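Hi W., the 2-acetamido-2-deoxy-beta-D-glucopyranose complex you wanted:
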Amino acid sequence: MTTLLVVLLCLCASLFPTLSTAKQSPVHPVGSGAEIDLENDPVSADIRAHWMRRAISTLSDLQSTCPFAPFGAVIVNHTVTEPGEGELVCIGVNAVQMDGNPTLHGEVAAINNCTSILTDPAGKYQLSGPDALKAFSDLSLYTTAEACPMCSSAILYGAFREYIYSTPIHGPNSLLAHGWPQIDLPSKEIFARSLGREVRTRIVPQVLANETEGLFVWQFGDGACPASCVKEQDERGWCVEGEKQEVPTGKKASPGREL
Ligand SMILES: *[C@@H]1O[C@H](CO)[C@@H](O)[C@H](O)[C@H]1NC(C)=O
Ligand SMILES: *[C@@H]1O[C@H](CO)[C@@H](O)[C@H](O)[C@H]1NC(C)=O
Ligand SMILES: *[C@@H]1O[C@H](CO)[C@@H](O)[C@H](O)[C@H]1NC(C)=O
Ligand SMILES: [Zn+2]
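Structure:
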């Protein structure tokens, strides 16, 4: 019992080395929760749009063309050929239902996938655990919707170089506006409230939100199905794969399904 306690304490101390030096750390380091002004984004709007569209296409790659939970993410190395297009490291989609794991939001799924790829002994990178962890600080995570507090925290702990989201949690045309159950806490605030840890991740908000919003409008609202999906003619009224056709409006999806 005592041994267990000592082991746990040591583990905690090594996991949180910054705690012991918290007194010397700036409370809100410069840049914490900073958003990139899109006018001054070092990466071009075309390249941002390219990778956000790739995040959208992960849904049809790994899930379906009209997934209930259309949360997809890609992780990209923009430092490789900067200011070129960048290089894809891994992709991920919300796999909460598929895998029966409540932590597998798109962003966490992508991070898990990147860790597997970066540390694969037979793979392209063959990094050790500590080196894989460090590698994230070169990388940019694109996600179809603003990260929830769990995923924002994971992005913060990964010390990603950038985090780029499309549909926001709050505000006009947001997840909340379309009826999605959400913790109403923006990533920016999670980052800004981080103490004793340097926050280096730059946030690039609402990239291509005009193209992701349509993915989120039918589950809890009356919005149309995405292209190449149709509304099921039953009580559930979900969008399912099929040819586009005229559908009656006014049907609400039952909000019983966990995301
Ligand atoms: C990202 O690019 C930089 C610069 O070329 C390189 O040093 C780093 O290893 C790359 N990281 C990954 C995970 O590919
Ligand atoms: C992990 O990322 C790779 C590379 O993008 C992709 O081929 C693969 O399908 C992804 N696996 C999962 C489980 O998402
Ligand atoms: C969405 O907006 C971007 C510019 O921000 C534009 O390039 C793109 O064509 C728009 N997409 C659609 C489907 O209108
Ligand atoms: Zn999340």
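The two ends are 38 Å apart (CA to CA).

W.
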